[in-house]
Protein backbone atom coordinates (compact mmCIF):
# COMPACT_ATOMS: atom_id res chain seq x y z
CA UNK A 1 0.00 0.00 0.00
CA UNK A 2 1.43 3.39 -1.00
CA UNK A 3 2.44 5.67 1.85
CA UNK A 4 0.38 8.44 0.26
CA UNK A 5 -2.86 6.54 0.88
CA UNK A 6 -4.82 8.29 3.60
CA UNK A 7 -4.62 6.41 6.88
CA UNK A 8 -7.86 6.24 8.85
CA UNK A 9 -6.47 6.34 12.37
CA UNK A 10 -3.65 5.43 14.69
CA UNK A 11 -3.21 2.44 16.99
CA UNK A 12 -0.37 2.66 19.51
CA UNK A 13 0.97 -0.49 21.19
CA UNK A 14 3.22 -0.83 24.23
CA UNK A 15 4.50 -4.29 25.27
CA UNK A 16 6.18 -5.23 28.53
CA UNK A 17 9.97 -5.42 28.25
CA UNK A 18 10.43 -9.18 27.77
CA UNK A 19 11.11 -11.29 24.71
CA UNK A 20 7.97 -13.38 25.23
CA UNK A 21 5.89 -10.17 25.10
CA UNK A 22 7.64 -8.22 22.31
CA UNK A 23 7.22 -10.88 19.61
CA UNK A 24 3.46 -11.54 20.25
CA UNK A 25 2.86 -7.76 20.15
CA UNK A 26 4.58 -7.68 16.76
CA UNK A 27 2.48 -10.63 15.58
CA UNK A 28 -0.69 -8.86 16.81
CA UNK A 29 0.26 -5.69 14.91
CA UNK A 30 0.71 -7.75 11.76
CA UNK A 31 -2.66 -9.43 12.27
CA UNK A 32 -4.44 -6.07 12.71
CA UNK A 33 -2.83 -4.76 9.53
CA UNK A 34 -3.86 -7.88 7.58
CA UNK A 35 -7.43 -7.59 8.88
CA UNK A 36 -7.73 -3.89 8.04
CA UNK A 37 -5.67 -3.81 4.81
CA UNK A 38 -3.17 -1.48 6.57
CA UNK A 39 -5.58 1.48 6.64
CA UNK A 40 -4.41 2.20 10.19
CA UNK A 41 -1.03 3.50 11.27
CA UNK A 42 0.41 1.24 13.95
CA UNK A 43 3.17 2.41 16.28
CA UNK A 44 4.89 0.11 18.78
CA UNK A 45 6.60 2.02 21.59
CA UNK A 46 9.38 0.60 23.75
CA UNK A 47 12.85 1.34 25.08
CA UNK A 48 15.76 1.84 22.61
CA UNK A 49 17.31 -1.65 22.88
CA UNK A 50 13.91 -3.36 22.60
CA UNK A 51 13.17 -1.24 19.52
CA UNK A 52 16.45 -2.50 17.98
CA UNK A 53 15.32 -6.05 18.75
CA UNK A 54 11.94 -5.41 17.04
CA UNK A 55 13.65 -3.81 14.02
CA UNK A 56 15.78 -6.90 13.53
CA UNK A 57 12.73 -9.17 13.85
CA UNK A 58 10.70 -7.04 11.37
CA UNK A 59 13.41 -6.59 8.73
CA UNK A 60 14.18 -10.30 8.45
CA UNK A 61 10.72 -11.80 8.94
CA UNK A 62 8.29 -9.64 7.02
CA UNK A 63 8.51 -8.53 3.42
CA UNK A 64 8.26 -4.76 2.92
CA UNK A 65 4.78 -4.93 1.42
CA UNK A 66 3.62 -7.28 4.18
CA UNK A 67 3.95 -4.94 7.12
CA UNK A 68 4.59 -1.27 7.83
CA UNK A 69 4.93 -0.60 11.51
CA UNK A 70 6.33 2.53 13.10
CA UNK A 71 8.62 2.08 16.08
CA UNK A 72 8.92 4.77 18.77
CA UNK A 73 11.76 4.88 21.29
CA UNK A 74 10.97 5.75 24.91
CA UNK A 75 13.96 6.93 26.98
CA UNK A 76 14.95 4.52 29.74
CA UNK A 77 17.78 4.55 32.26
CA UNK A 78 18.33 1.08 33.73
CA UNK A 79 20.90 2.20 36.33
CA UNK A 80 18.29 4.37 38.09
CA UNK A 81 16.57 1.14 39.16
CA UNK A 82 19.61 -0.80 40.33
CA UNK A 83 19.84 -2.65 37.01
CA UNK A 84 23.10 -3.23 35.11
CA UNK A 85 23.81 -0.77 32.26
CA UNK A 86 22.10 -1.48 28.92
CA UNK A 87 19.62 -3.92 30.42
CA UNK A 88 16.19 -3.12 29.02
CA UNK A 89 14.39 -6.46 29.18
CA UNK A 90 14.19 -9.50 31.42
CA UNK A 91 16.32 -11.75 29.30
CA UNK A 92 19.82 -11.33 30.73
CA UNK A 93 18.67 -10.73 34.30
CA UNK A 94 19.04 -13.20 37.17
CA UNK A 95 15.74 -14.09 38.80
CA UNK A 96 16.55 -11.97 41.87
CA UNK A 97 16.63 -8.82 39.69
CA UNK A 98 13.58 -9.50 37.52
CA UNK A 99 11.24 -7.55 39.81
CA UNK A 100 13.43 -4.45 39.34
CA UNK A 101 12.57 -4.24 35.66
CA UNK A 102 8.85 -4.52 36.47
CA UNK A 103 9.12 -1.52 38.80
CA UNK A 104 11.34 0.28 36.26
CA UNK A 105 8.63 -0.14 33.58
CA UNK A 106 6.48 2.46 35.40
CA UNK A 107 9.09 5.10 34.47
CA UNK A 108 7.84 4.86 30.86
CA UNK A 109 4.58 6.60 31.81
CA UNK A 110 5.81 10.20 31.30
CA UNK A 111 7.56 9.65 27.92
CA UNK A 112 4.66 7.50 26.71
CA UNK A 113 2.15 10.24 27.64
CA UNK A 114 4.28 12.70 25.63
CA UNK A 115 4.23 10.34 22.64
CA UNK A 116 0.40 10.13 22.73
CA UNK A 117 0.13 13.92 23.14
CA UNK A 118 2.43 14.45 20.13
CA UNK A 119 0.40 12.06 17.95
CA UNK A 120 -2.80 13.84 19.04
CA UNK A 121 -1.31 17.22 18.16
CA UNK A 122 0.00 16.09 14.76
CA UNK A 123 -3.18 14.29 13.70
CA UNK A 124 -5.74 16.60 15.29
CA UNK A 125 -7.30 13.80 17.40
CA UNK A 126 -6.11 11.11 19.82
CA UNK A 127 -5.19 7.62 18.57
CA UNK A 128 -8.08 5.20 18.01
CA UNK A 129 -6.77 3.14 20.90
CA UNK A 130 -3.74 2.11 22.89
CA UNK A 131 -3.07 -1.63 23.19
CA UNK A 132 -1.00 -2.20 26.31
CA UNK A 133 0.52 -5.14 28.11
CA UNK A 134 -1.36 -6.58 31.09
CA UNK A 135 1.64 -5.63 33.29
CA UNK A 136 1.51 -1.97 32.22
CA UNK A 137 -1.78 -1.10 33.93
CA UNK A 138 -0.76 2.56 34.24
CA UNK A 139 -1.54 2.94 30.51
CA UNK A 140 -5.24 2.86 31.44
CA UNK A 141 -4.75 6.20 33.25
CA UNK A 142 -2.80 7.67 30.29
CA UNK A 143 -5.60 6.67 27.88
CA UNK A 144 -8.34 8.14 30.08
CA UNK A 145 -6.42 11.42 30.56
CA UNK A 146 -5.73 11.80 26.84
CA UNK A 147 -9.17 10.80 25.57
CA UNK A 148 -8.62 7.45 23.91
CA UNK A 149 -9.56 3.78 24.50
CA UNK A 150 -7.22 1.35 26.20
CA UNK A 151 -7.23 -2.34 25.36
CA UNK A 152 -5.20 -4.78 27.47
CA UNK A 153 -3.32 -7.52 25.61
CA UNK A 154 -2.44 -10.66 27.54
CA UNK A 155 0.22 -12.65 25.70
CA UNK A 156 -0.85 -15.76 27.68
CA UNK A 157 -3.84 -18.05 27.32
CA UNK A 158 -7.18 -17.35 29.01
CA UNK A 159 -6.89 -20.04 31.71
CA UNK A 160 -3.34 -19.07 32.71
CA UNK A 161 -4.22 -15.37 32.63
CA UNK A 162 -7.26 -15.83 34.87
CA UNK A 163 -5.32 -17.92 37.40
CA UNK A 164 -2.41 -15.47 37.40
CA UNK A 165 -4.39 -12.25 37.80
CA UNK A 166 -6.81 -13.72 40.33
CA UNK A 167 -4.10 -15.24 42.54
CA UNK A 168 -2.09 -11.99 42.53
CA UNK A 169 -5.23 -9.93 43.21
CA UNK A 170 -6.51 -12.12 46.06
CA UNK A 171 -3.49 -14.10 47.42
CA UNK A 172 -5.83 -17.03 48.27
CA UNK A 173 -2.97 -19.24 49.54
CA UNK A 174 -2.54 -16.80 52.47
CA UNK A 175 -6.13 -17.49 53.61
CA UNK A 176 -5.77 -21.22 54.23
CA UNK A 177 -3.46 -23.66 56.02
CA UNK A 178 -3.94 -26.19 53.24
CA UNK A 179 -1.57 -26.59 50.27
CA UNK A 180 -4.67 -26.61 48.06
CA UNK A 181 -6.98 -23.64 47.60
CA UNK A 182 -9.81 -22.23 45.50
CA UNK A 183 -9.05 -19.37 43.11
CA UNK A 184 -11.75 -16.75 42.58
CA UNK A 185 -13.07 -16.87 39.02
CA UNK A 186 -12.89 -20.68 38.80
CA UNK A 187 -15.71 -23.10 39.72
CA UNK A 188 -16.06 -23.73 43.49
CA UNK A 189 -14.94 -27.38 43.23
CA UNK A 190 -11.69 -26.37 41.47
CA UNK A 191 -8.41 -26.47 43.41
CA UNK A 192 -4.93 -25.12 42.73
CA UNK A 193 -1.81 -26.29 44.58
CA UNK A 194 0.87 -24.19 46.23
CA UNK A 195 3.55 -26.01 44.21
CA UNK A 196 2.05 -24.58 40.99
CA UNK A 197 3.12 -21.10 42.12
CA UNK A 198 6.47 -19.42 41.71
CA UNK A 199 8.31 -19.02 45.02
CA UNK A 200 8.03 -15.21 44.99
CA UNK A 201 4.26 -15.54 44.70
CA UNK A 202 4.17 -18.25 47.41
CA UNK A 203 6.00 -15.84 49.74
CA UNK A 204 4.02 -12.73 48.72
CA UNK A 205 2.20 -11.14 51.65
CA UNK A 206 1.24 -7.72 50.28
CA UNK A 207 4.29 -5.89 51.62
CA UNK A 208 7.09 -7.33 49.44
CA UNK A 209 8.33 -5.73 46.20
CA UNK A 210 6.46 -8.28 44.02
CA UNK A 211 3.16 -7.57 45.81
CA UNK A 212 3.75 -3.83 45.47
CA UNK A 213 3.90 -4.14 41.68
CA UNK A 214 1.51 -6.84 40.43
CA UNK A 215 -1.85 -6.29 42.21
CA UNK A 216 -2.00 -2.51 41.46
CA UNK A 217 -0.98 -2.92 37.79
CA UNK A 218 -3.42 -5.82 37.28
CA UNK A 219 -6.23 -3.81 38.96
CA UNK A 220 -5.63 -0.93 36.52
CA UNK A 221 -5.57 -3.27 33.50
CA UNK A 222 -8.94 -4.64 34.65
CA UNK A 223 -10.34 -1.10 34.18
CA UNK A 224 -9.43 -0.98 30.48
CA UNK A 225 -12.07 -1.13 27.72
CA UNK A 226 -11.50 -4.79 26.85
CA UNK A 227 -8.86 -7.49 26.60
CA UNK A 228 -7.20 -9.27 23.69
CA UNK A 229 -6.08 -12.83 24.41
CA UNK A 230 -3.56 -14.88 22.41
CA UNK A 231 -5.70 -18.01 22.30
CA UNK A 232 -8.36 -19.83 20.28
CA UNK A 233 -12.03 -19.99 21.22
CA UNK A 234 -12.43 -23.70 20.62
CA UNK A 235 -9.33 -24.86 22.52
CA UNK A 236 -9.95 -22.65 25.58
CA UNK A 237 -13.73 -22.58 25.93
CA UNK A 238 -13.51 -23.11 29.71
CA UNK A 239 -10.78 -20.51 30.31
CA UNK A 240 -12.40 -17.85 28.12
CA UNK A 241 -15.83 -18.32 29.68
CA UNK A 242 -14.46 -17.79 33.19
CA UNK A 243 -12.06 -14.99 32.24
CA UNK A 244 -14.90 -13.00 30.63
CA UNK A 245 -17.06 -13.51 33.70
CA UNK A 246 -14.25 -12.45 36.05
CA UNK A 247 -13.27 -9.32 34.10
CA UNK A 248 -16.82 -8.32 33.07
CA UNK A 249 -15.25 -6.98 29.87
CA UNK A 250 -15.13 -8.06 26.21
CA UNK A 251 -12.30 -10.55 25.60
CA UNK A 252 -11.27 -11.10 21.97
CA UNK A 253 -9.48 -14.39 21.35
CA UNK A 254 -7.41 -13.71 18.22
CA UNK A 255 -4.75 -16.44 18.45
CA UNK A 256 -2.66 -18.29 17.77
CA UNK A 257 -0.30 -15.36 17.15
CA UNK A 258 2.52 -17.37 15.61
CA UNK A 259 5.21 -16.32 13.13
CA UNK A 260 4.04 -16.32 9.49
CA UNK A 261 4.58 -19.64 7.70
CA UNK A 262 6.68 -17.76 5.12
CA UNK A 263 9.26 -17.23 7.86
CA UNK A 264 9.53 -20.99 8.30
CA UNK A 265 10.03 -21.60 4.60
CA UNK A 266 12.67 -18.87 4.50
CA UNK A 267 14.97 -20.69 6.95
CA UNK A 268 15.28 -17.59 9.12
CA UNK A 269 13.98 -18.60 12.51
CA UNK A 270 17.07 -17.23 14.23
CA UNK A 271 16.33 -13.82 12.77
CA UNK A 272 12.59 -14.05 13.27
CA UNK A 273 13.05 -14.09 17.02
CA UNK A 274 15.79 -11.48 16.79
CA UNK A 275 18.24 -14.03 18.17
CA UNK A 276 21.25 -15.96 16.89
CA UNK A 277 20.62 -19.71 16.98
CA UNK A 278 23.16 -22.03 18.60
CA UNK A 279 23.01 -24.26 15.52
CA UNK A 280 22.60 -23.69 11.78
CA UNK A 281 19.01 -24.48 10.85
CA UNK A 282 20.12 -26.62 7.88
CA UNK A 283 22.29 -28.75 10.18
CA UNK A 284 19.40 -29.22 12.62
CA UNK A 285 16.96 -30.24 9.84
CA UNK A 286 19.51 -32.64 8.29
CA UNK A 287 19.90 -34.33 11.70
CA UNK A 288 16.11 -34.63 12.10
CA UNK A 289 15.68 -35.95 8.56
CA UNK A 290 17.69 -39.05 9.53
CA UNK A 291 15.38 -39.94 12.42
CA UNK A 292 12.19 -42.03 12.43
CA UNK A 293 8.82 -40.30 12.50
CA UNK A 294 7.76 -39.07 15.98
CA UNK A 295 10.94 -40.53 17.53
CA UNK A 296 12.66 -37.34 18.76
CA UNK A 297 12.07 -35.60 22.09
CA UNK A 298 12.65 -31.85 21.92
CA UNK A 299 13.73 -30.18 25.20
CA UNK A 300 13.74 -26.42 25.86
CA UNK A 301 12.94 -24.22 28.84
CA UNK A 302 12.27 -20.98 26.96
CA UNK A 303 14.23 -17.80 26.46
CA UNK A 304 14.94 -16.98 30.10
CA UNK A 305 14.56 -20.12 32.19
CA UNK A 306 16.94 -22.86 33.17
CA UNK A 307 16.98 -25.74 35.68
CA UNK A 308 19.30 -26.48 38.61
CA UNK A 309 22.61 -28.35 38.27
CA UNK A 310 21.27 -31.46 40.07
CA UNK A 311 18.11 -31.45 37.92
CA UNK A 312 20.24 -31.11 34.77
CA UNK A 313 22.33 -34.11 35.80
CA UNK A 314 19.20 -36.24 36.50
CA UNK A 315 17.61 -35.18 33.20
CA UNK A 316 20.74 -36.17 31.25
CA UNK A 317 20.97 -39.55 33.03
CA UNK A 318 17.27 -40.23 32.43
CA UNK A 319 17.62 -39.33 28.74
CA UNK A 320 20.45 -41.85 28.34
CA UNK A 321 18.50 -44.57 30.13
CA UNK A 322 15.37 -43.90 28.04
CA UNK A 323 17.38 -44.56 24.86
CA UNK A 324 15.21 -42.03 23.01
CA UNK A 325 16.69 -39.59 20.51
CA UNK A 326 16.53 -35.95 21.59
CA UNK A 327 17.40 -32.33 20.82
CA UNK A 328 18.17 -30.37 23.97
CA UNK A 329 18.49 -26.57 23.94
CA UNK A 330 20.76 -26.17 26.94
CA UNK A 331 22.10 -23.28 29.01
CA UNK A 332 24.15 -23.07 32.22
CA UNK A 333 22.12 -24.16 35.25
CA UNK A 334 20.26 -21.95 37.71
CA UNK A 335 22.58 -19.88 39.90
CA UNK A 336 25.19 -19.46 37.14
CA UNK A 337 25.36 -16.85 34.37
CA UNK A 338 22.72 -18.22 32.01
CA UNK A 339 24.38 -16.45 29.07
CA UNK A 340 27.89 -17.61 30.02
CA UNK A 341 29.96 -20.53 28.77
CA UNK A 342 28.63 -24.04 29.36
CA UNK A 343 30.84 -26.37 31.46
CA UNK A 344 31.12 -30.12 30.86
CA UNK A 345 30.92 -30.78 34.62
CA UNK A 346 27.20 -29.91 34.61
CA UNK A 347 26.49 -33.11 32.65
CA UNK A 348 27.46 -36.77 33.28
CA UNK A 349 31.08 -37.47 32.32
CA UNK A 350 31.38 -37.94 28.54
CA UNK A 351 27.65 -37.30 27.98
CA UNK A 352 27.98 -34.81 25.12
CA UNK A 353 30.56 -36.92 23.28
CA UNK A 354 28.54 -40.15 23.69
CA UNK A 355 25.37 -38.53 22.37
CA UNK A 356 27.25 -37.06 19.42
CA UNK A 357 28.98 -40.33 18.47
CA UNK A 358 25.80 -42.41 18.83
CA UNK A 359 23.83 -39.69 16.94
CA UNK A 360 21.17 -40.17 19.63
CA UNK A 361 21.26 -36.63 20.93
CA UNK A 362 21.89 -33.13 19.73
CA UNK A 363 22.85 -30.46 22.28
CA UNK A 364 22.13 -26.93 21.09
CA UNK A 365 23.64 -24.19 23.24
CA UNK A 366 21.63 -21.07 24.17
CA UNK A 367 18.95 -20.86 21.45
CA UNK A 368 17.37 -23.24 18.94
CA UNK A 369 15.05 -22.95 15.91
CA UNK A 370 12.04 -24.10 17.95
CA UNK A 371 9.11 -23.90 15.54
CA UNK A 372 11.09 -25.65 12.79
CA UNK A 373 12.00 -28.48 15.17
CA UNK A 374 8.40 -28.83 16.41
CA UNK A 375 7.01 -28.82 12.86
CA UNK A 376 9.38 -31.62 11.71
CA UNK A 377 7.78 -35.05 11.26
CA UNK A 378 10.48 -36.70 13.41
CA UNK A 379 9.54 -34.72 16.54
CA UNK A 380 7.31 -36.77 18.82
CA UNK A 381 7.12 -34.78 22.08
CA UNK A 382 8.27 -31.56 23.73
CA UNK A 383 9.70 -31.32 27.27
CA UNK A 384 8.75 -27.73 28.02
CA UNK A 385 8.53 -25.07 30.75
CA UNK A 386 4.94 -24.50 29.48
CA UNK A 387 5.43 -20.84 28.59
CA UNK A 388 2.41 -19.89 26.48
CA UNK A 389 4.31 -19.13 23.25
CA UNK A 390 5.93 -22.58 23.46
CA UNK A 391 2.58 -24.24 24.24
CA UNK A 392 0.98 -22.66 21.16
CA UNK A 393 3.91 -23.60 18.93
CA UNK A 394 3.81 -27.21 20.15
CA UNK A 395 0.04 -27.68 19.91
CA UNK A 396 -0.12 -25.98 16.50
CA UNK A 397 2.02 -28.89 15.27
CA UNK A 398 0.10 -31.59 17.17
CA UNK A 399 3.06 -32.30 19.49
CA UNK A 400 2.18 -33.46 23.07
CA UNK A 401 4.03 -31.92 26.01
CA UNK A 402 5.98 -33.11 29.04
CA UNK A 403 5.41 -30.26 31.49
CA UNK A 404 8.06 -28.77 33.74
CA UNK A 405 6.72 -25.33 34.74
CA UNK A 406 9.29 -22.95 36.23
CA UNK A 407 7.83 -19.43 36.66
CA UNK A 408 5.05 -16.91 35.88
CA UNK A 409 1.76 -18.58 34.86
CA UNK A 410 3.49 -21.76 33.61
CA UNK A 411 2.21 -23.94 36.49
CA UNK A 412 -1.39 -23.03 35.61
CA UNK A 413 -0.77 -23.68 31.90
CA UNK A 414 0.63 -27.10 32.82
CA UNK A 415 -2.45 -27.85 34.96
CA UNK A 416 -4.74 -26.99 32.04
CA UNK A 417 -2.71 -29.06 29.54
CA UNK A 418 -3.02 -32.12 31.81
CA UNK A 419 -6.55 -31.73 33.24
CA UNK A 420 -8.52 -29.83 30.58
CA UNK A 421 -6.78 -30.79 27.33
CA UNK A 422 -5.25 -34.20 28.07
CA UNK A 423 -2.15 -33.45 25.97
CA UNK A 424 0.48 -33.47 28.70
CA UNK A 425 1.98 -35.19 31.72
CA UNK A 426 4.03 -33.29 34.29
CA UNK A 427 7.58 -34.36 35.06
CA UNK A 428 8.02 -31.94 37.98
CA UNK A 429 7.49 -28.29 39.02
CA UNK A 430 9.88 -25.40 39.71
CA UNK A 431 13.65 -25.21 39.96
CA UNK A 432 13.57 -26.29 43.64
CA UNK A 433 12.17 -29.80 43.06
CA UNK A 434 14.18 -33.01 43.26
CA UNK A 435 13.94 -35.43 40.34
CA UNK A 436 15.60 -38.74 39.59
CA UNK A 437 16.69 -40.36 36.33
CA UNK A 438 13.90 -42.92 36.94
CA UNK A 439 11.28 -40.10 36.95
CA UNK A 440 12.65 -38.78 33.66
CA UNK A 441 12.74 -42.21 32.00
CA UNK A 442 9.19 -43.06 33.16
CA UNK A 443 7.59 -39.83 31.90
CA UNK A 444 9.40 -39.96 28.54
CA UNK A 445 8.18 -43.55 28.17
CA UNK A 446 4.54 -42.51 28.76
CA UNK A 447 4.47 -39.60 26.31
CA UNK A 448 6.54 -41.15 23.53
CA UNK A 449 4.77 -44.50 23.62
CA UNK A 450 3.07 -44.99 20.24
CA UNK A 451 0.29 -46.90 22.00
CA UNK A 452 -1.76 -46.28 25.17
CA UNK A 453 -1.64 -42.87 26.80
CA UNK A 454 1.06 -41.52 24.45
CA UNK A 455 -1.08 -42.30 21.40
CA UNK A 456 -4.15 -40.75 23.05
CA UNK A 457 -2.26 -37.53 23.87
CA UNK A 458 -0.93 -37.31 20.31
CA UNK A 459 -4.48 -37.67 18.92
CA UNK A 460 -5.79 -34.93 21.22
CA UNK A 461 -2.87 -32.64 20.28
CA UNK A 462 -3.66 -33.22 16.59
CA UNK A 463 -7.32 -32.28 17.17
CA UNK A 464 -6.21 -29.04 18.84
CA UNK A 465 -3.87 -28.31 15.90
CA UNK A 466 -6.88 -28.60 13.55
CA UNK A 467 -8.95 -26.17 15.70
CA UNK A 468 -6.04 -23.72 15.73
CA UNK A 469 -5.73 -23.80 11.93
CA UNK A 470 -9.48 -23.47 11.41
CA UNK A 471 -9.63 -20.39 13.70
CA UNK A 472 -7.42 -18.40 11.35
CA UNK A 473 -8.68 -19.37 7.89
CA UNK A 474 -11.37 -17.98 5.64
CA UNK A 475 -13.47 -20.24 3.43
CA UNK A 476 -15.62 -18.15 1.13
CA UNK A 477 -17.99 -16.21 3.37
CA UNK A 478 -17.11 -18.29 6.43
CA UNK A 479 -14.38 -16.95 8.72
CA UNK A 480 -12.60 -18.76 11.53
CA UNK A 481 -13.31 -17.69 15.14
CA UNK A 482 -10.07 -15.71 15.56
CA UNK A 483 -10.69 -13.76 12.34
CA UNK A 484 -14.25 -12.97 13.50
CA UNK A 485 -12.88 -11.85 16.88
CA UNK A 486 -10.39 -9.54 15.14
CA UNK A 487 -13.19 -8.05 12.98
CA UNK A 488 -15.26 -7.45 16.10
CA UNK A 489 -12.30 -5.79 17.86
CA UNK A 490 -11.76 -3.43 14.91
CA UNK A 491 -15.48 -2.55 14.84
CA UNK A 492 -15.35 -1.81 18.57
CA UNK A 493 -12.38 0.58 18.41
CA UNK A 494 -13.99 2.43 15.49
UniProtKB/TrEMBL annotation:
Molecular function as annotated in GO: UDP-glucosyltransferase activity
Membrane-spanning parts: none
Keyword check for Glycosyltransferase: yes
Family: Belongs to the UDP-glycosyltransferase family.
Keyword Transferase: yes
Protein name: Glycosyltransferase
EC number: 2.4.1.-
Domain Glycosyltransferase N-terminal span(s) in chain numbering: 11-258
Uppermost EC category: transferase
Cited Gene3D superfamilies: Glycogen Phosphorylase B (3.40.50.2000)
Alphabetical list of Pfam families matching this protein: Glyco_transf_N, UDPGT
